[in-house]
Amino acid sequence: MSAKLLRKVIGNIDQFPLSELEKLIGEGLHESDIYRTLLDSLPEGHVIVTRDHRVVFVSKAMSRLIPADRRYRLREGVRIESSVFDKDVKDYMIAVLSGKERAEARDFAFQAGEGASVMRVSFRTFEVDDESLTDITVRDITEEINKETKLRRSESLASMTTMAAGIAHEIKNPLAAMKIHLQLLRKAFRSKGRLSEEDADRYLSVLDEEIDHLNSIAVDFLFAVRPMNVELILGSINSVIDDLVVFLTPEANDKKIEIRTDLEAFLPSVELDQRYIRQSLLNIVENAFSAMPGGGVLKISTKLDGDYETIRIEDNGTGIDEESLSKIFEPYFTTKASGTGLGLTVVYKVVKEHHGDIFVSSEMGKGTVFTIKLPVPRSQRKALVSKEERE
Fold this sequence. Notes:
Layout: H1 3-11, H2 18-41, E1 45-49, E2 55-58, H3 60-65, H4 87-97, E3 106-112, E4 115-128, E5 131-140, H5 142-192, H6 197-225, E6 233-235, H7 237-254, E7 257-263, E8 270-272, H8 274-290, E9 296-305, E10 308-315, H9 322-325, H10 343-353, E11 357-363, E12 367-375, H11 378-390
Parallel strand pairs: 7-9
Antiparallel strand pairs: 1-2, 1-5, 3-4, 4-5, 6-8, 9-10, 10-12, 11-12
Helix pairs in contact: 5-6, 7-8, 8-10
């Protein structure tokens, strides 16, 4: 029975026979039971509260998902602050309902026997008869996190296997060169009995070069696999880009490449380690320069996109084929004859250490676009909202 019909009946209740009223009320209760049973059967927990934090509905799943004291269990009619037992969850719910925190999903961990369970709390506000209500949903994401952890371990193992194969391939050439020149050195000793400094230096200089090459391979590998000592402090991404452009301009001019920037003014500060972010952007730009051997245009832009700052680096170079595009962040994968294949691996790692994301799109013959998204800290989001409200 629709709410519209029920209101019409209430407005003319004195005109309805008692039997008809009983029938309509029975149908209404039956529908209400159906909706409640449906909500109670959902795996996630739901609690609907009014503007003054009073509970008007709570599903059965909520009591098993959020730890609660039986004496103060969640139930209809009580205020939510007096019925949620866990302090962290309660404080967060009250902060959101009071407008002190944004209504963003947040995860909470609870001890469950010898293990732990993780619950995600999210919010949705809606209006019913000019009354503002909030649906607080609690979902058990423990299994999802476990699957993600297993997936990351599998990806890590696969990455290490790829890196091991890459290192084996990389060190074969310098080792082979060293072996050949040692053999030549032995032959020269046997035939001459002694060598002049000039003759010896001819062989030893090659050995020195190959040892340096092996050392650089080891250094690059350690940089790629070791945990980064990232120091995140509030800073301006535009400032990093401005400094980088000044540094790159002479090289760009020499290669007949025009650098164009479109940096959004008054961007909020983001948490970043300027050393690593600068190196990452430099790696991407150097790849772009390599893709434009005859010159071209490199565009670097920034903008605010919701709760993220977006950095876009676009070239009009040769582009990347579809097969290579899916592998460019893999260790030791490179399309350049002299590349180590670790540059973009490091870029990916740096972006992840900054809690961001990186995307790439490309079209053969038209160019490539790298897009980096870095999260704006909550404190900066609040400052931004306050500024907009003042204006």
